[in-house]
Input
Amino acid sequence: MLRAIIFDFNGIILDDEPLHFRAMQEAMADINITLTREDYWAKYLPFDDVDCIEAVCRDHSVQLPDEERARLLELKFASYDRQLQNRYPIFPGVPEFIHSASQRYPLALASGARRQEIETTLTATGLKKYFQVIVAAEDFTLGKPHPESFLLALKQLNDLTGNRPSLIHPEECLVIEDSVGGVGGAKAAGMKCLAVTNSYPPDTLQEATRVVHSLEDLEIQLLAELFEPAS
Output
């Protein structure tokens, strides 16, 4: 039975993955590393910024001192903020979907994005009130496809016991993701996953429980059906 939903942020709620790519590309160019779109989507998109920089540098045999790593992070943050320009490109239908889902299930968010970035967007778009839990990059160590962020979100939901008669278990959770790493993390957490093809083609997301083109006009009832025994 479905009892809770955990959303990803970038690529599911906020349509900003191309902005993150260009910002990281600019930061890497500052140390003479060429980061291609193909490599970013294939290898690095699920990572938070710290892990992304580490992975790109490792793959290019570059070792960074702590102060240089911090400088590149600031370059990336500044480039992203400059591109965003206080605009919040939310995917079509997502606010309505989140509102409908919140009427039936407790909602959490688990993302490798910065907490400030997440909360600023959710507050500006009126969506923050729908989420009982927000897990951001600062809250966990191991990024997707590791399940840490999803399991932490579930733990925090369970800490908010409210009127629920029992703990929510991983197999009673649905993760909504856009990336291959996110799908892998959900599966590793023992959770079902609804993958949305906002960032990757359907054939790369087949490990998900279900793959859909968009959350727009998606019937909430479909989510519960994913938890029904196969006939």
Remarks:
- DSSP finds nine helices and six strands in the chain.
- The domain at 4-15+89-225 is CATH 3.40.50.1000 (Rossmann fold).
- The beta strands are 4-7, 107-110, 133-135, 173-177, 192-196, 210-212.
